Amino acid sequence: MKLHPIFFEPEVHSTIFLIINLIGSIIVRLIIHSWPLTIFWSCFYIIIVFLINHSLASGRYYLPTKNIHDKTVIVTGAATGIGRICAIRFAKLGARVIIGVRGQERAERIAKELCKESDGGTVIGYDLDLSSLANVKKFAEKIECVDILLNNAGGIQNTYSVTVDGIEKQFGTNHIGHFYLTQLLLSLLTNGRVINVSSIVHHIVPSRGIDYTFSKLKNKYNSAEAYAISKLAQIYHALELTRRYGIKAYSLHPGTIMNTNLNQFRPLIERIIITLFSVIGRTVEQGSMTSLYCALSDDAKPGHYHSNCQVRKPSQLALDNYRAEECWNESEKLINKKIK
Ligand SMILES: NC(=O)c1ccc[n+]([C@@H]2O[C@H](COP(=O)([O-])OP(=O)(O)OC[C@H]3O[C@@H](n4cnc5c(N)ncnc54)[C@H](OP(=O)(O)O)[C@@H]3O)[C@@H](O)[C@H]2O)c1
Which residue ranges does UniProt annotate as crossing the membrane (predicted)? Predict the structure, then answer.
């Protein structure tokens, strides 16, 4: 019997472990009434479960030590979360780091913070709003060289909205913004790496695939599906970059990290549940490791999807070369139509 790829994810192992423990302890308590449920034994048991769970949830570690003094790295969405940690790590390894953050003043302020946090690393901040093609172009025009492009920024929208250019917001920001940025920098990236931070959530895209008109979603907005579509498109993008141009492009799931800003616009009740579930997730540092792995490790595989610092099988839909090509063509068409 073949297990679904998501059964290989640390957060799934951790969840199963916790559920088994919960059910197990209820059964044991029901069968063995004399079970020594003293405070001491209960605390002991909880600590052991917590420690095992923590090591299951953490996943594999990748702590790069490579000297990258000669490299220029671009990180989008580096103000917070995974992007911020990656930018600090790149700067600590000696790279010249350019961060793309919304608002020029904010970008400069955050760049200063990251210089300090990386013990004097080189971090430059430029305004970048991926939900505006004109803004993406302005950002790209400032770039003279780049060796590693980490397409990390991303957002979740609960209700239907569109970008400045009239594209469904999650697809327009998470995929189209990064797609356009990569296109504009393509000539600088022939020997470089492009890393797309996708998500395990791409698995939920229905087998009919991506509807590029977003007509169904427009009428009855399914936020999770729209997010998943944008993340599937990012996997196709990496696959096609490698297939078309031989560029080392990678897509990845960073893990489940509950304490970033990603879920900030979710309803309060969902945020409370997410916080409670943080016990099955990773820290932001652990969540940055697969991005760093794809950016720096010789073991990462171009064109492939990664998770937990190794190559992983994505959904069947994500492996469809025909759909990857279609996604590329549709993205190009959409951008050309909007920038005319
Ligand atoms: N956390 C998880 O469990 C998880 C799981 C799977 C995948 N991911 C992916 O990992 C990536 C990083 O997420 P995170 O968890 O670190 O969340 P985060 O802290 O919210 O970071 C996302 C970053 O993207 C930036 N961003 C959003 N919209 C933007 C736009 N229009 N233009 C430019 N930047 C924009 C945000 O900037 P502002 O500060 O200006 O809002 C923020 O700095 C995302 O692509 C996310 O989809 C996360």
Answer: 12-32, 38-56
- Contact between 86 and 150 (Cβ < 8 Å): yes
Name the nearest CA neighbour of 335 among 207, 181, 216. Answer: 181
Length of the chain: 340
pLDDT digits (tens, 9 = 90+) for 141-167: 999 999 999 999 999 998 999 999 999
Residue with CA nearest ligand 1 atom 47: 154
Query: Where are the domains positioned within the chain?
Result: 5-58, 72-339
Residue 66 has pLDDT above 80, yes or no: yes
Residue with tokens 């920038």: 339
SS3 for 8-29, per residue? HCHHHHHHHHHHHHHHHHHHHH
Confidence of residue 62 (pLDDT cuts 50, 70, 90): very high
pLDDT digits 0-9 by tens, 252-280: 999 989 878 887 777 777 777 777 667 77
CATH number of 72-339: 3.40.50.720
Instruction: Give bridge partners of residue 252 from the DSSP assignment.
Output: 197, 306
CA of 105 to the centre of ligand 1 (A): 19
Determine the pLDDT at residue 4: 84
Ligand 1 center to 324 CA (angstroms): 23
